[in-house]
Specification:
Elements: H1 10-40, H2 44-53, H3 56-71, H4 74-97, H5 103-131, H6 136-168, H7 172-189, H8 205-218, H9 220-249, H10 255-283, H11 285-305, H12 309-337, H13 343-371, H14 374-392, H15 398-408
Helix pairs in contact: 1-2, 1-5, 1-6, 1-7, 2-5, 3-5, 3-8, 3-13, 4-5, 4-7, 5-13, 6-10, 6-12, 8-9, 8-13, 9-13, 9-14, 10-11, 10-12, 11-12, 11-14, 13-14
Subcellular location: Cell membrane
Pfam families: MFS_3
Keywords: Cell membrane, Membrane, Transmembrane, Transmembrane helix, Transport
């Protein structure tokens, strides 16, 4: 039986449900935490501290966290992490009820939630290929579903739910997110066990972390897959930094219209995640990745030149579709070719590169918008994306992808339909 007709195992349904519930809770807290901070202070620097605290764990512990995940049982790491995050959220909820909530407490909670996210996301990324037998086609289908529901839950349903729950009381959205983590922990604990990573020679954690990072940099394919989100984050954060100003000053739209622009982008993301597997089969994974990257760059170029809100909305939808497909195809390929004992470190290294690159986009956009024009930041973002597409096209080409998949294929010789060209 070829891989494109094999069914996803029953355990995937529980993992899918768990991550959907958790994504919904994340969307609630992502809307509620900034609003809670805003209710406590109008100091922009204090608000920035709360916002940045959630990303710091990736910058400080990204590769080390991946090394730990490669030592630990992945299923246990996931459910223990989410159980801990559920308990953690009870602290600010109690503080809100007692009216002792503060900016330092919110920043600490955001940091610890981000640390939990580091361990959960890395463990989930490493667990999925073990659950699916490292089958490339199944991985693409699974990641397509995970990405689609994550976008819908955290992008569409979660933020408005968080705002609505906050109106009922400061503690309500925090408790709702705690419940989502608890449900996710219960579901993950019921997942089938997978083989634990094979213990390696007695090496220090730092040495193992370096080994995982060097594995990425020694492989042109993995390095190309890591460069896409790293450079992409510079460009997309640059777009996000000036988008509200661009929408107001150049397109003449208000808050409601700006919300519709973001909805258009999220809708495109859902579509892109849904058609990613089709693109991989028709074009080959390598060519599909090059095409989606080019689509992102051209879409941002169209956004920069957009004469009105309708054209801008269309450009953002197209950009979202490219991003959605890329975020299915890239991780699926990485999960199919990276050895299980290195999966956590490789995934966390790639994620850390993307997180470290993001602040440069904000500074670049702010400088260009101040020194020149808000459209200059968008044109620069488009240029970065198109340059990245040209640089990584050969690094992630079909021939290199097929060779990596063949080298990683199990001895049973399953047919790989995802990497072949049309």
């Amino acid at each position: 039986m070829t891989s494109d007709v094999r069914k996803l195992p029953a355990g995937f349904g529980r993992l899918w449900t768990a991550q959907t519930v958790s994504s919904l809770g994340d969307g609630v807290s992502h809307a509620a935490l900034p609003l809670l901070a805003l209710a406590l202070t109008r100091d922009p620097m204090a608000l920035a501290v709360v916002s940045a605290a959630g990303t710091l764990p990736w910058l400080l512990f990204g590769v080390l966290g991946g090394a730990l995940v490669d030592r630990w049982d992945r299923r246990r790491t996931m459910w223990v992490t989410d159980a801990a995050r559920a308990v953690l959220l009870a602290i600010p909820a109690a503080a809100a009820v007692l009216d002792v909530l503060s900016i330092p407490l919110l920043a600490a909670v955001a940091f610890l939630l981000g640390l939990g996210g580091l361990f959960f996301d890395t463990a989930a990324t490493a667990y999925l290929p073990d659950l699916l037998g490292r089958d490339p086609a199944l991985l693409e289908r699974a990641n397509s579903r995970l990405r689609g529901t994550q976008t819908a839950a955290s992008g569409f349903a979660g933020p408005p739910a968080g705002s609505a729950l906050l109106a009922l009381g400061r503690a309500v959205p925090l408790l709702a997110d705690a419940v989502s983590f608890a449900v996710c922990a219960v579901l993950v604990r019921s997942l089938p066990a997978t083989p634990r990573p094979v213990p390696q020679a007695r090496e220090s954690l730092l040495r193992q972390a370096r080994a995982g990072a060097s594995y990425v940099f020694r492989s042109r394919l993995l390095l190309g897959l890591a460069l896409r989100p790293a450079v992409g984050n510079i460009a997309f954060v640059a777009v996000e930094t000036v988008l509200a100003l661009f929408a107001h000053d150049r397109l003449g739209i208000g808050s409601f219209g700006f919300g519709l622009l973001l909805t258009a982008e999220a809708t495109g993301g859902l579509l892109g995640a849904g058609i990613a597997s089709f693109l991989g089969r028709r074009l080959g994974t390598g060519t599909a990745l090059t095409c989606t990257a080019a689509v992102e760059g051209l879409a941002v170029l169209g956004l920069a030149a957009a004469p009105n809100a309708y054209a801008a909305g269309l450009a953002l939808a197209v950009c979202g579709a490219g991003m959605g497909a890329t975020m299915v195809l890239g991780p699926s390929l990485r999960q199919a070719i990276v050895p299980s004992h290195l999966m956590g470190r490789v995934a966390s290294t790639s994620r850390m590169l993307a997180m470290c690159a993001a602040p440069f986009g904000a500074f670049l956009a702010g400088w260009l918008a101040t020194a020149y024009d808000v459209r200059a930041a968008l044109y620069a973002a488009a240029g970065l994306l198109l340059a990245m597409t040209a640089v990584t096209a050969t690094m992630t080409g079909n021939r290199r992808v097929e060779a990596a998949l063949a080298a990683a294929a199990p001895e049973s010789g399953k047919v790989n339909l995802s990497a072949g060209a049309a």
